[in-house]
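In this section we walk through a basic example: taking a raw amino acid sequence and producing a predicted 3D structure, encoded as discrete structure tokens. The instruction is simple. Fold the sequence below.
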Amino acid sequence: MSDAEEAAIEGVSDASTTAQSVVENIGEVIVGNEQAVEHLVVALLGRGHVLLEDVPGVGKTMLARAVATSFECAFNRVQFTPDLLPADITGVNVFNQKTGEFEFREGPVFANVVLGDEINRAPPKTQAALLEAMEEETVTVDGETRTLPDPFFVVATQNSVERDRTYELPAAELDRFAVKLSLGYPDEQEEQEVLGRVVGDHPIETLEPVATTTDLVAARQATASVTVGEPVQSYVTQLARYTRENAQLGVSPRGSISLLRAAQGRAVLDGRDYVIPDDVQSEAESVLAHRVRVGRDGSQRELVRDALTAVPVE
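The resulting token sequence is shown next.
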């Protein structure tokens, strides 16, 4: 085995350790929902962004805060409201009377981890302020493009009720989220554990980081180096084609890329330096379902499950 191959394997091993530590650390705050937590960490490893949609009060914001706290990263929170303006997110040029020049004041998007809380409460024009940031990790204001910090990760929450008081996220924005997750209500035992944990101080207040920004950058680089064989690439392509042939709107090439990167992240979480079809299958529903449009009586998740059943693994 060459030195480069040994270094790659060691990098994946370190990345797996980092990922497992973060999953366990989040578990100190979030009771249950182990699969959702793993999907989120996998998306983070694969350089993707996460959308959390559910009813109020099930822990969406707390999960986002726990992720941000687990890394020693710069963290900003944006509370989306109907009167929020794009400049409130990206930043704005302000005239300095002393110097006689305009100075750029960074918006909250200039952070490693950005929490967009209740993103669907803001109008589409304001939501669109995140499109360039999420895709290119840059922000353009008054014709000047600025690079966002590395790493850059968006966790957005979305209220699934009160549809008459919110704005639907456009397809172009949904497509920029690597995964869309729901937490759901806890069962009886989990809810009792939640109540027991929050007596006194909330666990989020004492949660400590378990990884640094450098660790996250290294973990992402190791994830990108994970081997994806041609059969797996073909499998992802066939899944995407199935959705295009059986839905009003199928998965885009960006969606295929997101699934491949998520599969790499899942491999790292499991301690492997290569992707297997099981990795693709475990991430397919959370990555693909929100990208498709089906008929009035259809289900997005059911369509993805149908694709997993119909497309053979070679």
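Looking at the output, two observations stand out. The CA atoms of residues 72 and 236 lie 34 Å apart. The mean pLDDT is 88. In the next section we compare this with other chains.
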